[in-house]
Amino acid sequence: MGSGVQHALEQLKTTGVRITPQRHAILTYLIESMNHPTADEIYRALEPKFPSMSVATVYNNLKMFMEAGMVRELTYGDNSSRFDANVTDHYHIICQKCGKIEDFSYPSLHEVEREAEKATGFKVNGLRMELYGICGCCSNKQH
Questions:
Q1: pLDDT tens-digit map of 51-105
Q2: Does residue 76 sit in the same domain as residue 116?
Q3: Whether residues 53 and 115 fall in one domain
Q4: In the chain, how many H helices and how many E strands?
Q5: Which residues bind Zn(2+) (predicted)?
């Protein structure tokens, strides 16, 4: 179990959320999969362990994690929400063929925020950056 999971669970406790085995499993899956799964994917991955769990349970827990500020919902072109347990500042690169999303970080994007504040007088709360392309797997298939 990664330290990310431990940290997230501690954070949840401070918000007064009860940590059920299902919640623990959903959060762990989200943090460890890092491929921004949809609620359906999470459900399918965990169903063997939790036969009584429904897709609705997964959704409700994801909503709760989002309210606690621990999970972000990513809505992109394919209409299915994906969920990201990494709420630190990072950006996404998205495959236009298979829809896979990967994270990357680039420090000078923080300067973009600061420049924007200077130029506009806005107080910037965040930035969402998406790059689009074809991932390695898909481009290999094309050749």
A1: 999 999 999 999 998 888 888 888 766 667 888 887 676 788 888 888 888 888 7
A2: no
A3: no
A4: 6, 5
A5: 95, 98, 135, 138
Tell me the average pLDDT of the chain: 84
Q: Are residues 96 and 79 part of one domain?
A: no
Q: Examine the domain organization and report whether 28 and 78 are in the same domain.
A: yes
137 labelled ligand-binding = no
Residue with tokens 């409700």: 60
Beta strands in 61-140 (DSSP E): 72-75, 81-84, 91-95, 101-104, 130-133
Same domain, 102 and 60: no
Q: Is the pLDDT reported for residue 39 higher than 90?
A: yes
98 assigned ligand-binding residue: yes
